[in-house]
Amino acid sequence: MPSESFYSICTYRDPLATYSDLPVQVMEEKLLKISMHLNALRLENWIFESFLKEHIKPDDIIMMDPCDRASHLESPKYSLSSLSLGQCAGRSLCLEAEQKVFVAKSQTDALSKHLRALKDGVNEEIEICHNRMENYSLELRDIAKMRKQFERFCSYEGFDAMHKCIYGEKFLNHWKKWMRKREEEVQKIRTLTVGLKIRLKNVKEDLTIKTRTRDLITATDCSALQMTNKYLADILFRKQVEFIECRKKQSAICANTLRLNQTF
Fold first, then answer.
1. Is 199 inside any structural domain?
2. Source organism's superkingdom (predicted)?
3. Which of 4, 48, 82, 152 is in Cβ range 3.0-4.6 Å of 92 for a Cys bridge?
4. What is the pLDDT averaged over residues 30-42?
């Protein structure tokens, strides 16, 4: 409900002073208060209409007389078409605080969900735009490269200095040569794509096999594999120790042999 200060602002009638006589700062403060109350009324109206749309079926809505203020406030039935902004705001005061919080929370959740979906869509569009920009940059690079080649051809290879012209036969041969190079590059790309598809297929098959193998392994098999792994790790450690001892013996034999050679 608007406060008394709000009504005092709306019904301000000083016979000795008019609005034009008020300072600008005072008028700005009064306009600010009026706008704040107006926003509050709009929020109440929005909450009340949302509550009606979610909790009242279309068949339950009946037409009411807007002039009948008492029956309008006591009746559980409402007519959206016969309610003005002020009536909706006054009617929303009859709602409990819990109902208002529930409606506001549901609307906030729906808005958050919509914003998340919008964010995901924007991210997808940004990714698509990045991919398009990369493709455009590659196309621009190819176009610049082709332009340089054509300029080189027109300046040196195909240009006839005597007649100051470019013969059509040379230009046609140059164009065919360039087209053959492009076809070779396209063929390389196709071959690479086929190879990548085969590798992707093999990776998917390996992943499927590994997934099935993982599903088939039980707890007993896992324990047995762990014991086998530990046993093999011990054997490997002993072999490494024996290998180090052999290297030491080999070094000692080499030192003795070198000493004997120096003696004789």
1. yes
2. Eukaryota
3. 48
4. 78
- Domain count for the chain: 4
CA separation (Å) from 160 to 149, 163, 165?
A: 17, 6, 5
**pTM, 2 dp:** 0.32
> What is residue 2's three-state secondary structure?
coil
User: Does the residue 162 lie in any domain?
Assistant: no
- State the burial class of residue 78 (Cβ atoms within 10 Å of its Cβ: 0-12, 13-18, 19+): buried
Q: Are residues 62 and 8 in the same domain?
A: yes
| Alpha-carbon distances of 83 from 34, 36, 62, 112, rounded to whole Å | 22, 22, 12, 29
pLDDT above 90: percentage of residues in the chain:
0
| Residue 164 region by backbone torsions, left for phi larger than 0, else alpha for psi between -120 and 50, else beta | left
What b/e readout covers 175-208, taking b as 16+ CB neighbours within 10 angstroms? eeeeeeeeeeeeeeeeeeeeeeeeeeeeeeeeee
| Residues in contact with 237: Cβ distance below 8 Å, sequence separation at least 6, in sequence order | none
Q: Which one is predicted more confidently, 154 or 114? A: 114
Of the two residues 61 and 112, the one the predictor is more confident about is 112
Question: What is the CB-side half-sphere exposure of residue 56 using CA atoms within 13 A?
Answer: 16
If asked whether residues 84 and 16 sit together in one domain, one would say yes
- Which class for 89: exposed (0-12), middle (13-18), buried (19 or more C-beta within 10 A)? buried
- N-term to C-term CA, the chain: 119
Distance set, CA 154 to CA 2, 157, 197, 201 (Å): 83, 6, 41, 47
CA nearest to 85, candidates 126, 46, 138: 46
